[in-house]
Amino acid sequence: MCILALDQGTTSTRAIIFDKRGKIVSRAQQEFPQIYPKAGWVEHSPQDIMGSTVAVIGEALIRAGLSAQDITAIGITNQRETTLVWDKKTGKPVYNAIVWQCRRCAEFCDALRRDGFAEKIYNKTGLVPDAYFSAAKIKWILDNVDGARERAERGELAFGTVDTFILWQLSKGKIFATDYTNASRTMLFNIHTLKWDEELLRLFDVPAAMLPEVHPSSHLYGCTDARLFGSPIPVCGVVGDQQAALFGQLCTKKGDVKNTYGTGCFLLMNTGDKAVKSQNGLVTTLGATAEGKPCYVLEGSVFVGGAAVQWLRDEMKIISSSDDSEAQAVKVKDSGGVYFVPALTGLGAPYWNASARGTITGITRGTTREHIIRASLEGIAYEVCDLVQAMEKDAGIKINRLAVDGGACKNNFLMQFQSDVLNLSVVRPEVAETTALGAAYLAGLNAGYWSGIEEIKKNFEVERVFTPYMDEGERATLLNGWREAVRKATL
Ligand code: ADP
Questions:
Q1: Four-residue CA torsion sign, 307, 310, 316, 321
Q2: Among 79, 226, 240, 388, which residue is least crowded by beta carbons within 10 Å?
Q3: Residue whose CA is closest, atom 21 of ligand 1?
Q4: What is the number of the ligand 1 atom nearest to the C-alpha of 305?
């Protein structure tokens, strides 16, 4: 018997089948199109989300030579905040999925801030009013799709993040639910009372009848419809992607931290049963546990991480592949005084400066292509360094170990430099698919496939640990230079 994790991400959908030792038995992946109806707007087709979901589950089963009966449970993890609204009778969406990156509600969220709602929203949800989160996206659909508001008020429409939509579709309308981690990203959920918040529902004009039930991440949600994969499969785990990675890295204790180096970078710290209020631009959110109650998490995110490397490859064309960035960066002994602030879409935490722009400083006649490439990778590490420092201040905890994952963590130069500028150990696990692994663990624990966290911990294998060897003086000089470069990027 095996566990299947479904990872419905922003650019692709993956299914990964894991065995008892947490090893990958088979995997299948499908990319799907991004829809950009206007500058700054991003949508996904709900048919693409479901089509790719059913396809990759089927393909992963076939590749492993397994059938639905061989799967003890499914764990679902998903791109967070992305918003769907559909008809409760037919299951038909009334509009495309509005993706987390979409900026269409920016003005509405600016107005909320101007009108003084930021503190109330933060105190209830742990989030800052930003177009990123789901609430304003639901309001936009109800206000802009013909007849949607009336239908929602009559109780005919359902809202869901991607997990909820997938659960509904896989169960043919029998499951209408989400988990704490996804609910905590909607801006409608009170993370202290663990309930949908009536005052916020009024503020965003969202009828309560649209909302799913909220359950723990490790929970029997119901079964997939028998017609889909030949026989029903229990869904026993649902979790947002970043919280899944935190669990997959086994950051289950207070003070445990992981950073994901993907398109953006996401630093999450488990703060146990206490919600930590951020004074430094981080958000407070809910994390997954194997028990009934969620834990609290501090989260800092930067929008452009690995995407800086993509930009070097696709727009500047100075590297042939993302992997090539490492080979080029190590050809020079340092960045030659060049700093690259990857604020290509503004700066996220801890600066929250939407008008900052990408900035390269310190270019001289002697600057080479390799210096620029190296400075780009170093820029990602400095961004994470800012997040770690903000988190240490907020949590009052010194971070000594950083668990890493995501596409760019395979870059050894980047990981060593990260360890050097942070002066801590960077730990890269053997199974880099920590997001899928986290969802699989949560599902498998609920289903009794694994007996408990202790059994899972035995599966954890470290692939490589990076330890710092930079001296204090050099570190201080480099960090000063970075701060000066950030100042220039935000002028
Ligand atoms: P996501 O899940 O956000 O789509 P991934 O975790 O798959 O992202 O990571 C992809 C990102 O990592 C891309 O932006 C890519 O440029 C970057 N990346 C991949 N390999 C490397 C590498 N060897 N060095 C630096 N960046 C890399």
A1: positive
A2: 226
A3: 408
A4: 14
